[in-house]
Amino acid sequence: MDTLVDDDGRVRRAAAKALKELAVTAELIGADDELQTMLTELETLAEDHDNEAVQKHIDQAYENVAFHAEKPGSLLPDAFRDALE
Known about the structure:
This protein is mainly α. The chain has helices spanning 9-29, 32-48, 52-70, 78-84.
């Protein structure tokens, strides 16, 4: 998470991408608690930083993690998801 507030935008961009991949993995293995923890930590990080460039990457990471936290099974094909319900 610390890399999301790095001075270098390339580092922040890479961090946001890595968090997205982590969120995808967490969703696939059903680690809902981890996804919620990530969201909480990102919210705290956003509150602590007001730099617009940094905030942009924090917001991007938050949106990516929130997508996977709020829509479990979003990566599954529709037919498979319907069969699980």
